[in-house]
Each structure stands twice: as structure tokens, then as C-alpha cells.
Amino acid sequence: MPSTSSYQRVLLKISGEALMGAREFGLDPHTVERVGREIQAVHELGIQVCLVIGGGNIFRGIAGAAQGMQRASADYMGMLATVINALAMQNALEQLGVNTRVQSAIPMATVCEPYIRRRAQRHMEKGRVVIFAAGTGNPFFTTDTAAALRASEMGCDALLKGTKVDGVYSADPKTTPDAVRYDHLTYLDVLSRDLKVMDASAVSLARENHIPILVFSIEKDGAFAEVMSGNGKFTIISDGE
Ligand code: UDP
After folding, report:
1. Ligand 1 centroid – CA 61 distance (Å)
2. Which pTM does this prediction carry?
3. Which of 54, 50, 48, 60 has its CA nearest to residue 15?
4. pLDDT tens digits, residue range 42-96?
5. Residues with CB under 6 A from ligand 1
6. Where are the domains of the chain?
């Protein structure tokens, strides 16, 4: 189906915690399915979609390092956690009738494809949702940076960051009721004010490659498709006004 939206190809980044629902750890199948429906709705608009999912609901390298592990070893565990989330999302999307492929930055031939840039592009051209797993494949990085990297490699028109709130605020609106919400920010605003949207290397990479970052709520039903149709509530981070 041809896309009527101004976006032809986008990358959605969600944290592992977005798949946790009300749980304190791991995956909530109903939440995974709900997020799957959000992705399905955008896919049905004819927009090519790829995904990067974090692993913080299962394991974070920094937490392992804090408990005395070597940071690099702990980070590899974190990357494996993202593969678990990718497989869960693949399963949910396929049950909804959406064709998918998982590509991992750490090759694991019996579980999923290895990351191959041109193959991933071809999958999307054929209407498959591609889920990029294992982050960048390198310790000391985050899945935010992986998202900006893959969005750049795939030539995406936008990098979507699905969060718990409907945009970027001056402080956490859940704990600071008078926090200011922004409709538009420049990459430099985010970097210089140290706004907690994505980590600095992810924002810098998006800036260098002129990929706008759209921050919206992944918890509100239908929000992803609304943002892609030019409606809905989101904060856009880009070069100019
Ligand atoms: N990670 C890594 N390299 C990457 C991406 C992720 O080492 O390129 C590890 C890191 O330990 C991180 C964990 O994987 O803590 C889970 O990713 P992240 O914390 O970004 O997940 P999120 O907060 O988005 O759920």
C-alpha cells in the first residue's frame, strides 16, 4: 500500500520497560501485544517501519557493573536481553498478521538473521517490519545510540522515541507538576540543557544525519499512527525552527 503520510520509512525506539506493563521486571504479554497493534496501525498506513527495543526490563549493563561485574561482560548480557524482547515483539506482530524479520548485531544463526544493512532495507521494501536486536553489538553503548545508528543506515525520515509521556518536558512531569512541555527543540537545545530524551551520542548522530527525533507517548492508544499522520501530540527535535 503506498503511503499518504510524508514519512516513507521510520525507526521506532522503545525501551524494554515499555513492554513491562505493571510488572516490575520482564515482559507483560498484553503490553507487548498492545504495542504490536500500535506498530501494525502504522504499517497499515503504508509506512516502512523498523524497530529498536531496549533491554532494561531484563538487564542493564550498568547495574551488573555496579554489582561488581566487568562492564563489558554485563553489557553483553544487556544486549542479549534486547534479543529476548525482539523475539517477543516478533511473535506479537506475526500473530497480528504483520510479516517481520529480526536482525541481530551479534550473530546467532539459529535464532534470527545477522544484521545486514542492504538485506534489512530489502525486507522493508517488501513490507516486512525489521526488528534490530543486540543494540550496536558493542559494549559501552546504549540502544538509543543503536536506534540513531540504524535510522541513519536505513535512511529513515524520522526516529520515533516512544516514551511514557507525550513529549519532552523541562523535568519529569510525573514528579514535577509544573514542568514545561516543548513542541519543538533543536538538537543543540537537548544537548546543552541536558534534557533526558535520548543519550547525547544518539542525539549527535541524529543531528549529523539530519534525522528528526519525534518523542511521543507509546502508552496512549493510537498515538504512533496519529503522529505519523501529522496529528497527535509529540515533541519534534530537529535543526531549525
Ligand atoms: N547495550 C550495549 N550496547 C548496545 C546496546 C545495549 O552494551 O549497543 C547493553 C547495555 O548494557 C544496556 C543494555 O544493553 O544497559 C540494555 O539496553 P538499554 O539500557 O539501552 O535499554 P532500554 O533502557 O532502552 O530498555
Report:
1. 7
2. 0.96
3. 54
4. 999 999 999 999 999 999 999 988 999 999 999 999 999 999 999 999 999 999 9
5. 15-17, 54-56, 60-62, 75, 78-79, 81-82, 135-136, 138-139, 141-144, 146
6. 9-238
Question: Across-strand partners of 158?
Answer: 10
Handedness of CA 152, 3, 116, 40 (dihedral sign): positive
**What whole-number distance in Å separates Cα of residue 71 and Cα of residue 92?**
32
According to DSSP H, which parts of 45-182 are helical?
A: 61-66, 71-95, 117-125, 143-153
**Which amino acid appears at position 215 of this protein?**
V
CB-based contacts of 158: which residues, under 8 Å, 6+ apart? Answer: 7, 10, 11, 151, 211, 212, 213, 214
| Sequence-separated contacts (24+) of 169-178 with Cβ below 8 Å | 170/195, 172/196
CB atoms within 10 A of CB 240: 5
State the distance from the centre of ligand 1 to the C-alpha of 142, rounded, in angstroms: 4
Residue at grid coordinates 519532552: 168
Rounded distance between C-alpha atoms, residue 143 and residue 198, angstroms: 10
Expressed in angstroms and rounded, the spacing between residue 39 Cα and the centre of ligand 1 is: 22
- Other Cβ atoms within 10 Å of 230 Cβ, number: 9
**Residue type for position 197:** V
Helix (H, G, I), strand (E, B) or coil at 139: coil
Domain covering 9-238, topology = Carbamate kinase (3.40.1160)
Q: What is the pLDDT of residues 104-137, one digit of tens each?
A: 999 999 999 999 999 999 999 999 999 999 999 9
